[in-house]
Each structure stands twice: as C-alpha cells, then as structure tokens.
Amino acid sequence: MLFMTWTIAPEPFDSPTAAELWRAYYTEVSDRWYLLHEGRRTDPAELEREIAARTGTELAPPGGQLLVGRYEGTPGGSAGVRLLDADTAELTRVFVCEELRGRGGAALLVAAAEDAARALGARRIVLDTRNDLVEARALYARLGYAETAPHNDDRYAEHWFRKELTGLLS
C-alpha cells in the first residue's frame, strides 16, 4: 500500500499558489453562503472584487504567517495566523481542497498554524466561523477549541472559538 503524505510550509501570501488557494477558499465559502441564504451562487463581479480586496497582507511576517499544505507535492490547503495583540493570534483561511478532504490535512494545517502562532509569541488563538460551516466547527471542537464570546464584529461570523496555546511546538 502506498502511503500519501502532507507537507506544510510557510508561503508568501501573494504567491501564485496562495492566490489559487485563496480563490478556491473564497469561492466555496461565498457560494455556500449565497446558496443557503439567496438560492444562488456568488455574482462573478462581486467575487472578483472581494478576492482583490482581501489580499492577505496581514498574513505576512513579522505579524502573520500563511501556511500551505501540499499533498504528495500538490497544493491542497492553507491556514493563516495573524497577531491581534501581543498574546493573541487569529486563525484564518483554513481550507482543504474538496478532493483532498478526509486525509488529515485540516488537522495538520491547524497544528502548524498553532505552532506559527506560538513562534509569533501568542499565548492563545481565536477564530470565527459560520453556522453553515459545520465541518469546520466540528474540526475546531475536536482539536480542543472552545466556543466563546465574540472577539470581532465580522458580519458573517456566527461562532467564535478560542484555544490556549500551551506547551512546545508540535
């Protein structure tokens, strides 16, 4: 039996790989929201505006980090962290391409993001997500994140999670 593996490494937020994964992530979460609430996919012009407006600069060192997961060398997922303050990092852009889901990549990306947050000096990590992203909420709960009070006023956020970062890097 051939064993397939994930590798996870930092990636510049503005690399072609990061841009491709951001487009796939944003298209999926935007389409899910519009299909649920309005019965349609995202308007292509709106999609392009939002992708262009959210460049990911906050995921650049020294205050942030974007990580890309590759499955057998092929880019297949991402996770980002950014410092909100000296002790708190935010987990964002956690995504695994649909065809690679169920192969452990999401948990590895989150663990790598937690390590990146620790390396930035964070003692805790927070995130937000939506009601319809039930898989994400289950993942975070399984990985030790506890639902908590809101830490932001993002119009799409419906659930907020927090985890204390203890111990050594993974």
From TrEMBL:
A Pfam family of this chain: Acetyltransf_1
MF (Gene Ontology): acyltransferase activity, transferring groups other than amino-acyl groups
UniProt KW Repressor keyword: no
PROSITE patterns, per database record: GNAT
Superkingdom, taxonomy of origin: Bacteria
Gene3D superfamilies given in the database record: 3.40.630.30
Residue ranges of every copy of the N-acetyltransferase domain listed in the record: 19-166
InterPro entries: Acyl_CoA_acyltransferase (IPR016181), Bact_Acetyltransf (IPR050832), GNAT_dom (IPR000182)
Protein's name according to its UniProt entry: N-acetyltransferase
Source species taxonomy: Bacteria, Bacillati, Actinomycetota, Actinomycetes, Kitasatosporales
